[in-house]
Amino acid sequence: MANVIAWFEIPVADMFRAKAFYHAVLGSTFDENPQMEGLAFFHVDGGGVGGHLQAGDGTPSDHGPLIYLDPPAGVTVALGKVEAAGGNVLQPSTPVGSSGYIGILLDTEGNRVGLYSGIV
Questions:
Q1: How far, in whole angstroms, is CA 116 from its chain's centroid?
Q2: At 40, which helix (H) or strand (E)?
Q3: Reported pTM
Q4: Residue 2: inside a domain, yes or no?
Q5: Residue 41, domain member (yes or no)
Q6: CB–CB of 105/82 below 8 Å?
Q7: Which among 91, 109, 12, 100 has a CA at the least distance from the CA of 51?
Q8: Is the separation of the CB atoms in 74 and 101 below 8 Å?
Q9: 118: number of CA atoms within 13 Å, CB side?
Q10: What CATH number did the domain enclosing 43 receive?
C-alpha cells in the first residue's frame, strides 16, 4: 500500500468562503469541472493524494474522522493564518516525536481539520 489515504472530501456550506479559507491558510488552488457542479478539487502537483470541497452534500462537522493536510510552509505558518481567514485554531503546532508537527483547526464551514508537516 503506497498511501493509506486515497482521496478526501470536505463538506462545505459556502464554496466561495471555503475556497478563500483554504487558499489563505494553505495557499491551495482549485481545479473545477463544469460537468461536476458543486465540487472544487484541490490542485495536486505530481499525482499526489488529492481531494475536493463539496457543496450541498454532507454536513460540515467538528466530530468524526480527522484528516490531516500538509501545509507547504509548515504547521505554525499555516495556523498563524487561520483566524485572519475566519477559522479557529483548536490545537497549536505540537511535535509528534521525530516525525514532525501537527495542529488542528476549525475551518469557516465548521469542519475540524488537522495539519501535519515535517516543518514546524
A1: 10
A2: strand 39-42
A3: 0.93
A4: no
A5: yes
A6: yes
A7: 12
A8: yes
A9: 2
A10: 3.10.180.10
C-alpha cell at 38: 458543486
Q: Give the chain's end-to-end CA distance (angstroms, integer).
A: 27
Nearest CA to 87 out of 10, 16, 21 is that of: 21
Structure-derived torsion over alpha carbons of residues 49, 99, 73, 25, reported in degrees to the nearest 10? 70
What distance in Å separates the CA atoms of residue 17 and residue 21, rounded to the nearest whole number? 6
What's the chain's length in residues? Answer: 120
Cα separation of 93 and 61, whole Å?
22
What is the domain extent for residue 36?
7-117
**What is the count of structural domains for the chain?**
1
Per-residue pLDDT reduced to its tens digit, 32-47: 998 999 999 999 988 7
Q: Which three cell numbers stand for residue 60?
A: 460540515
Contact assessment for residue 52 and residue 41, using Cβ atoms and an 8 Å cutoff: yes
And the C-alpha cell for 62? 467538528
Q: Look at residue 25 and tell me if it is in a domain.
A: yes
User: What does the pLDDT look like over 21-34, one tens digit per residue?
Assistant: 999 999 999 999 98
Distance in angstroms (rounded) separating the CA atoms of residues 56 and 31: 18
